[in-house]
Amino acid sequence: MSAAYDGYDELPAHAPVGRLSARVALRLGPFDLDVAVVAEPGEVVAVLGPNGAGKSTLLGVLAGLLRPDAGEIRLGERVLGGDGVFVSPEGRRVGLMGQDPLLFPHLTAVENIAFGPRSQGVAKVRARAAADDWLRRLALAEFADRKPAELSGGQRQRVALARALAARPELLLLDEPLGALDAQTAPEIRHVLRTHIRAAGTTTILVTHDVLDAATLSNRVVVLDHGRVVETGVTAEVLAAPRSEFTAALAGLNIVAGVTLTAARPGESIAIAPVGLAPVVGQPEPGQPGGLTVSGFAADELAAGVPATAVFPPSAVAVYVGPMGAGSPRNLWPATITALQPGPSAIRVRAVLSAAVGTAAGENSVVLDLPGSEAGAAVSADLTAASVAELHLEPGMRVYLAVKATEVRVHAH
Amino acid sequence: MPRWLYLPALIGFAFLFLPIVALVVRADWSAVPSAIVSPAALSALWLSVECGLAATAVCLVVGVPLALMLARHDSPVIRFVRALVTLPLVLPPLVGGIALLYLLGRNGLAGQYLTLWFGLTIPFSTLAVVLAEAFVAMPFLVISVEGALRTAGTRYETVAATLGAKRWTVFRRITLPLVLPGLASGTVLSLSRALGEFGATALFAGNRYGVTRTMPLAIYTAFNGSGEDQDAAIALSLLLVVVAIVFLVLIRGWRPEAGR
Question: Which of A38, A193, A337, B232 is least surrounded by CB atoms within 10 angstroms?
Fold first, then answer.
């Protein structure tokens, strides 16, 4: 293996990009995992699922920590497992980073990061230089000589990411990397992960139970339940139109994928045009029903014209029937009700946003319904049973959905 | 801490410390220097240090891998092996000496072949002292290192493997440094146990001046045996106390800050 690293300096700073294609079956006592997962080169695939669905077991098999009973794992041009082949973890070039950063406690930050290259036969000076480079990239330069015990949780997780990437894995496995971080640190590390996984172009499998991680970090999702794949597809589509009950429950937040119309710094207001629902003609006007923009506040640094995801809770969505006058909510969208689901405290009204054809539209515009699964713009609203009854809401009804911009967080995607 | 528990605590301390005081008080200090620099004392001291270090080295070379095997596997066989490893701890050292004699003695289970094939006779040699000391000291090292290995767990080793480190690299750069505090205390325990070893040495190695007469045997001989006076025994005992303290200080000084 070490021959591949002789040219550490000459190779691009980032890892080779491999395509993962895995089909694994494994029985562990009463639990039985049988899944197929594919990740295209450079793709980030989120693996979602309830506790005990087999997410971490899958990662263990991919990392070579567990030996599958059957199946085949291919990474790039190599076969890592299956058919009598079993490559041990140290020979796989599959990196693993969990919610516990597990930095080697006796080594400094820079020594931790240099550990991978050193172990793969890179000379001390060059490994150190590569580690210094990673420290700079992750804004950790001043902490190079600190021991893990002298770093904050977020800093440790950044060092752990640098250490994983410095080993130049062909596949990176992230096992709930934000799971142990507090609410202040998690967004920062989510941002760091997004930036550096993209920059490294490493094929990545991300296990998470946080729909926001999946929505903001991944291209595709695989939903596991009881050791089986129950749903898979493009992230925005799966989350917008969940087919499995688990995904629906998971996607408790409204997630609308789109493209930013303006640039914004964190905390500033911003608007996005939802994918597939951008106005056909004319400049979108935020707040106008036909404009079909989603206004909110930026959670990350965002440029204009980049992919972004708007996230807001169903409790923030109000439903109007019929024409209405001027109002304060910046978001007012025509929609069609698709389903009513009674919940424990409210009735969840599911609706798909409708694309308007024409100029900035009002009541007279032609409204074109797009199926949610294609458009990726299903929105749920939680209403009281009394409201639902009073408005006589039922599937198929045309309504307007109103959301205050302050309730909408726009994340980079 | 309940206040009344200080009483038994202080009694315990006094019980451990007062005998040393009695030794110091009883010593004939005018005779101590000459007793310590006597050829007999110096020979015993040198032999003790030499054999103690050699026995500790033996413990480290085979004891650390043994601890690793016990910590990283779990099966009925391993549990049985672990029970056997701790046996020398509860065995009277005299029994250990006899057992070694019947294994490695001239007519012993293995000893007869050593004599037959290699012309090697172990009992009553300096090598026998080292082996007897290693026999009684090794369980201390194994237990202490195994405990440290279990506490450290395998998670760091797993991470190291996913970073591309081969098993020997993981052992050298991750496993060993992580258990260093346990390894250090195990080494101290083994060394002190080896320095104080008497019973197994006496039976397996005998009491030959300059060959197998270590400090404990020299003290016994001076106090009880061939008619030398008790003052020499006391002086030698004090010397052993000082040697033990020196070793403790040396190893504590070398030991890196633990628990980081």
Answer: A38
Query: What topology is assigned to A255-412 in CATH?
Result: OB fold (Dihydrolipoamide Acetyltransferase, E2P) (2.40.50)
B35-254: which CATH architecture? Orthogonal Bundle (1.10)
Is residue A3 within 8 angstroms of chain B, CB to CB?
A: no
Q: Give the residue with greater pLDDT, A272 vs A58.
A: A58
Q: Does this complex have an ipTM over 0.90? A: no
Which sequence spans correspond to the domains of chain A? 2-251, 255-412
pLDDT confidence of residue A247: 73
CATH class of A2-251: alpha beta
Q: Which of A332, A331, B228 is nearest to B213 (CA)?
A: B228
Q: Residue A174's Cα: distance from chain center in Å?
A: 12
pLDDT at A288 over 90: no
Please name the residue of chain B whose CA is at the shortest distance from the CA of residue A104. B156
pLDDT (tens digit, 9 = 90+) per residue, B114-129? 888 988 888 999 999 9
- The residue ranking higher by pLDDT, B55 or B229, is B55
Whether A115 and B177 lie within 8 Å, measured CB to CB? no
Q: How far apart are CA A188 and CA A66, in angstroms?
A: 32
For A359, what's the count of Cα atoms within 13 Å in the CB-facing half-sphere? 0
Give the chain A residue nearest B171 (alpha carbons).
A119
Q: pLDDT tens for residues B146-193?
A: 999 999 989 999 999 999 999 999 999 999 999 998 998 899 889 989
Q: Which residues of A touch B164 (CB under 8 A)?
A: 1, 90-91, 93, 116, 119-120, 167
**Cβ contacts (< 8 Å) between B165 and chain A: which residues?**
90, 115-116, 119
A116 vs B156, B164, B177: nearest CB: B164
Is the CB of residue A119 less than 8 Å away from at least one CB of chain B? Answer: yes
- Give the model's pLDDT for residue B62: 96
Candidates A170, A173, A166; CA nearest to A113 is A166
CA distance from start to end of chain B = 28
Provide the pLDDT confidence category of residue B38 given band limits of 50, 70 and 90.
confident
User: pLDDT of A9-41, one tens digit each?
Assistant: 444 445 567 899 999 999 988 889 999 999 999
